[in-house]
Design brief:
Helices cover 4% and strands 21% of the residues. It is mainly beta. It has one domain (1-126). It has a three-stranded antiparallel beta sheet with strand order 3-2-4, with no helix packed on it. It has a two-stranded antiparallel sheet with strand order 1-5. It is globular.
């Protein structure tokens, strides 16, 4: 591949409630970039009502590598329709810092915790 390319990756999101201690929802993922583009399914906490926290997952597909350019994603939560109570910005690891996806190795959706951003909350975590 030419320089300035990141071969293949996808992004996941997970929501939870009660400062990320309870009602942790199902991980939802986009397709890998090399596959047909699509949105992930909607992410929710387990009771599908008013989640308080979210985190992102960056996953490189098996055999892909980072060449010349590196990426990571950021997430930040707020309240009042994005007008107040801004939380701390959280980041996924850099693509170059993560290895072959557990999905590719095991065929299951179980991932190493190191690929996730920390949970992002609004300022008061509610």
């Amino acid at each position: 591949m030419a320089g300035n390319m990141i071969n293949d990756f996808r992004v996941g999101i997970q929501l939870s409630d009660d400062k990320s201690r309870n009602q942790v929802g199902i991980m939802r993922y986009t397709n890998f970039v090399s596959e047909s583009p699509r949105w992930s399914d909607w992410a929710t906490d387990t009771n599908k009502y008013d989640p308080d926290a979210a985190r992102l997952h960056l996953e490189r597909k098996g055999g892909s590598k980072v060449e010349s350019v590196d990426i990571r994603f950021a997430i930040q939560a707020s309240d009042k329709a994005g007008l107040s109570q801004f939380g701390i910005v959280r980041y996924t690891p850099w693509a170059s810092e993560i290895g072959v996806s557990a999905y590719q190795c095991s065929g299951q959706r179980e991932f190493e915790s190191g690929h996730w951003s920390d949970f992002a909350f609004d300022e008061n975590q509610y």
